[in-house]
Design goal:
alpha/beta; about 25% strand
């Protein structure tokens, strides 16, 4: 059975604004402000480039809401290595976003992948739309290594992704597959789930 869970109504606090929702919004607004110069630069870019920039910003923000298996890092300050397959442009954008920053004490390293390249040493793999045919195989391999798989295909969750980026009404949003996360040994923050477009749980 497949269940789609969307953000539910939260009873309002005495001020009239849900306390939990205010906290969630504040966290994401602060993150958006941190990326404001980057976003402003991409605002006048062609549509495809602007979409790619937003997706790179999403990927970077996801890193702060993921808990990997205990053996995912060789050291407490080891980098979070993000492999990007099928989108060298997004890899370049992500490297720029992450430059000089750290996520929970981990610097972020971006690596361009080629088809068939091993996933060893990575914590995240982003699979671009041009390589979606390889997504099921990559997802299966990633699940045995505790690697978060992010995709941008219409059927990304069906193919085994943990997070799938989608464009709805001209805006980049994301959906989450909890079963894939559990199989990978990854825990996702409830704060991330609360702002997802959809969260899928249960057997497919």
């Amino acid at each position: 059975m497949v269940v789609l869970i969307r953000c539910a109504h939260v009873p309002a606090s005495p001020s009239g604004v849900p306390r939990v929702w205010r906290t969630l919004v504040l966290g994401w607004v602060l993150g958006a402000l941190a990326l404001a110069p980057f976003a402003a630069a991409s605002a006048q870019a062609p549509a495809a480039a602007a979409e790619r920039s937003v997706k790179a910003a999403f990927v970077y923000k996801f890193l702060g809401y993921v808990e990997w298996p205990a053996d995912a890092f060789a050291a407490p300050d080891a980098p979070i290595v993000v492999g990007v397959l099928g989108s060298d442009e997004l890899a370049a954008e992500l490297a720029e976003v992450a430059r000089g920053r750290a996520v929970n004490g981990h610097p972020v390293e971006t690596r361009r992948l080629r088809p068939g390249e091993a996933l060893a040493g990575m914590q995240v793999v982003f699979v671009g739309a041009s390589e979606k045919a390889r997504l099921p195989q990559i997802a299966r391999a990633a699940q045995t290594r505790g690697i978060l798989v992010i995709s941008e295909s219409d059927d990304g969750l069906d193919a085994g992704s943990v997070i799938n980026l989608v464009v709805i009404d001209g805006r980049v949003r994301f959906e989450v597959g909890l079963e894939a996360a559990e199989r990978t040994g990854i825990r996702l923050s409830s704060r991330l789930l609360a702002v997802a477009h959809a969260v899928r749980s249960g057997a497919r």
